[in-house]
């Protein structure tokens, strides 16, 4: 029987709906489109930060260095960079319903920096989740099996008793390797239908 729903954060719980602020910084810095995004979320510094090997100050220094950005502009850049992100309120309503009506445990499993915990609190969604597991605290990232095993252990559920939702195919494959049910996030309707099908099959 399905006992737990585990969600990725970036691209699932929060999604970038407006890329124009990031592209505006590309133009401002006379860089090719996509440069800001590659520096923030596509660099070796980003990987090291997600593994907990690079603190916040060093991470943003690396981003600034990659973009040729003066250090004093980092706060403005960071604010603008994330300003196009939006909370997936429809999915949060689904999570709330599954907790209250089905009694499912819920958790977040995310490859991210420790600061993600602050962002989750600021969004007001922390009470919707029994566990929040961030790669920087583990020292491993999805799709490493240890990442999935850590959240399963925290929830005290077996892999086959859980459903994992992520927008990255590699992370979906990783969850299935350890025996979890998994749904590749493309849109909310697909997640809803996938969960309904799994719960029906399990007799929930």
Question: What do these coordinates show?
Answer:
The protein is an alpha/beta fold and 204 residues long. The chain has two domains: 4-15 and 87-201, Rossmann fold, CATH 3.40.50.1000; 18-81, DNA polymerase, domain 1. The protein contains eleven helices and seven strands. The protein has helices at 20-28, 35-41, 44-50, 56-67, 74-81, 89-102, 116-123, 135-138, 145-155, 169-177, 188-201; strands spanning 4-7, 14-16, 85-87, 105-110, 131-134, 162-166, 181-184. The protein has a five-stranded parallel beta sheet, with helices on both faces. A two-stranded antiparallel ribbon has the order 2-3. Helix 2 runs antiparallel to helix 4 (56-67) and helix 3 (44-50) packs antiparallel against helix 4. The longest helix has 14 residues, at 89-102. It is elongated and about 55 Å long. 34% of the residues are buried. The model has no long low-confidence stretch (mean pLDDT 96).
Residue fraction in strands: 5-15%
Q: Radius of gyration in whole Å, from Cα?
A: 18 Å
> Reading side by side through the largest sheet, how are the strands ordered?
5-4-1-6-7
Number of separate strands: 7
Note the total helix count: 11
Instruction: Identify the CATH homologous superfamily of the largest domain.
Output: HAD superfamily/HAD-like
Please identify the structural class as seen in this structure: alpha/beta
| Overall tally of structural domains | 2
Question: Within the CATH hierarchy, at the fold level, what is the topology of the largest domain?
Answer: Rossmann fold
Alpha-carbon distance between the two ends: 7 Å
Shape: elongated
User: For the report, how would you describe the main beta sheet?
Assistant: 5 strands, parallel
CATH architecture of the largest domain: 3-Layer(aba) Sandwich
CATH class of the largest domain equals Alpha Beta
Instruction: Write the element-wise H/E pattern from the N-terminal end onward.
Output: EEHHHHHEHEHEHHEHEH
**Average residue pLDDT:** 96
């Amino acid at each position: 029987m399905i006992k737990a729903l585990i969600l990725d954060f970036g691209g699932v719980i929060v999604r970038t709906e407006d890329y124009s602020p990031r592209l505006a910084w590309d133009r401002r810095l006379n860089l090719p489109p996509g440069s800001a995004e590659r520096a923030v979320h596509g660099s070796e510094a980003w990987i090291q930060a997600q593994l907990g090997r690079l603190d916040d100050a060093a991470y943003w220094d690396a981003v600034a260095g990659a973009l040729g950005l003066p250090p004093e502009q980092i706060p403005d850049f960071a604010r603008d960079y994330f300003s196009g992100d939006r909370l997936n309120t429809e999915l949060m309503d689904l999570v709330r319903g599954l907790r209250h009506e089905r009694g499912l445990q819920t958790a977040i499993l995310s490859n991210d920096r420790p600061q993600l915990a602050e962002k989750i609190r600021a969004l007001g969604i922390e009470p919707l989740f029994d566990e929040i597991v961030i790669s920087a605290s583990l020292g491993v990232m999805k799709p490493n099996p240890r990442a999935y095993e850590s959240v399963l252990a925290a929830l005290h559920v077996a892999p086959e008793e859980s459903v994992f939702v992520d927008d990255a195919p590699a992370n979906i494959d990783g969850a299935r390797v350890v025996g979890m049910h998994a749904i590749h996030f493309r849109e909310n309707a697909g997640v809803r239908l996938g969960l309904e099908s799994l719960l029906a099959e399990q007799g929930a």
